Fold this protein.
Amino acid sequence: MKFTPTLNKVRISLVLLAMLATVSSCGKKSEDSTAAADASVSAGGFAYVTSQDAGVSVIDLATMEVVKQFDVKAEGPRGLGVTDDGKKLIVATRENESISVIDTTTGEVLQQIHVGKNPEFVRINGNFAYISSEPSSVGGPPPKPGTEEDDDDDDEEKIPAKIAVVDLTKGEKVREITGGPETEGIEFSADGKNLVITNEADNTVTVHNIADGSLLKTIHTHEHGDRPRGIKVSPDGSTYLATLEYGNKFMVLDKDFNFVRNVDTGQTPYGITYDHTGKHIFVATNKEKSLQVFDAQTYEKIKDIPTGNRCWHFSFTPDDKQILLACGKSDAVFVIDAEKLEVTKQIEVKNMPWGVVTYPKAMGSLDTKIATQE
């Protein structure tokens, strides 16, 4: 049987169309596979860890491995925070008295904004970042109690600190709130109207109106313990906790910032947080070399989790199943099972890891889980 030229052309066209369809299908499968692979890499989210002598390490929470390094383009990165959309990381850099605004996708430093001497904690609320500073600090570890350096009568060194308020949309510092000398930790009040800060050098916790910066209340800690550092509000807003590094305890305040009680901890407590349910309290005790767990109702200690050297700050993972604890002098981030309360892994992070936050946001000593994520 003979085919006409026209019929042959039709059949050739059909064959070509089938081949093109196959190639297109293979391409689509390849794209789908690539997309699936990318999704699996970031399925657990990411943790960002500052190292004081380096930059930022990025940990893939699905694999618990360091997958990227961000150069912050400055020396002495410490406090950090991530924006609510996860697109920008804000890092306090001590030596240039600034914050670095980093694109979390590319690792590019988009901007450096001057905020003041010795910036330390970073907290983000909407489009604004709040950065504590220590203008009277001379650097290094805090002096030992009773030494000449720790003399409470040395007023010349007690320069009031400033909380820099940075508008992240404008990309500039828009105002300052005056804190106490060597302002350390920053927390937002439960209603979002006030800042609660720890002032390390004059042993106070102060409450300030966010809108106008006015001082609303001062809580003196000396009779309970010196050097207040970590600060945290409970998920239901009913209590506030402040660690007293030289008291070896944390202080409990009610919703109106009235003293309730003290709770004994191991040596030199620093970072502190509730879990997202508010049922447990976790405290990083530096010289005790442990993460301590307490019942948030009775304040009875549940467990000491042995850790490493100079462990200050920590965060839950977004799924609340694990805890990441930055241990500076161990050059490691310890991974802790949040249910078994046991260390399961150490991730090497060199150059004095200081702080850790995650995206999606999770409860930790430097951040708070966003309720809408649950």
In short: Confidence is low (pLDDT under 50) at residues 1-41, 146-156.
